Amino acid sequence: MPASDNTLQTDEGRCAGMRAALDAARHGVFAGQAPFGAAIFTNQGELVVAEHNQVREMLDPTAHAEVFAIRLACRLTGQRTLPGCWLFATCEPCPMCATAAVFAGLRHVVYGASVEDAREAGFSELQLPSRQIFDRSDDKIAVFPGVLRQECRALFTARP
């Protein structure tokens, strides 16, 4: 589902992108995974991949939605980095995922719920805001927090 020509720069476009991440997270919840989703779009608004957390299924603590989406997007595009692409995450990226976004060359990060929202819902999260990692990157990373926050927070109580 393309968010259409460069509409990711608009509120409406960012909401459309977040809906792809939300759909992936819901799919994960129904598969017995933690309620986190991520999507990667090209700068032109084309969906590259949408993935959900797969830690439980893969028995891999690094299989967060964002990391899994980055890995798959790199494979699908045949590129080691994803310059110009956008990362959408239903929750603020943890330090590992934020660092992966930096190393992947992502220049736009959009998230819904905050790390604090996740902690309040009972998830164990490091209290290190992703902004602190993005600000240390050599490249400027545009961050758009709180997109569809309530819908993203609602995932924390979702059950299959």
Task: Characterise this structure.
With 160 residues, the protein is an alpha/beta fold. The protein has a single domain, classed as Cytidine Deaminase, domain 2, CATH 3.40.140. It has seven helices and five strands. It has a five-stranded mixed β-sheet. Strand 3, helix 4 (95-103) and strand 4 form a beta-alpha-beta unit. The longest helix has 20 residues, at 11-30. It is globular and about 35 Å long. The two termini are 25 Å apart. The model has no long low-confidence stretch (mean pLDDT 93). Residues 12-125 form the CMP/dCMP-type deaminase domain. It is an enzyme of class 3 (hydrolase). Keywords: Hydrolase. Pfam families: dCMP_cyt_deam_1. InterPro entries: CMP_dCMP_dom, Cytidine_deaminase-like.
- Widest β-sheet, arrangement of strands: 2-1-3-4-5
* Total strand segments: 5
Number of helices: 7
- Overall CATH class: Alpha Beta
Low-confidence segments, ≥5 residues, pLDDT <50? none
What's the story with the biggest beta sheet? 5 strands, mixed
Number of domains: 1
Nearest-angstrom radius of gyration?
A: 14 Å
Task: Give the N-terminus to C-terminus distance in angstroms.
Answer: 25 Å
- Morphology: globular
Amount of beta strand: 15-25%
Q: How would you state the average pLDDT, rounded?
A: 93
Q: Identify the CATH architecture.
A: 3-Layer(aba) Sandwich
GO molecular function: tRNA-specific adenosine-34 deaminase activity
Protein name: tRNA-specific adenosine deaminase
Keywords: Hydrolase
Domain CMP/dCMP-type deaminase: 12-125
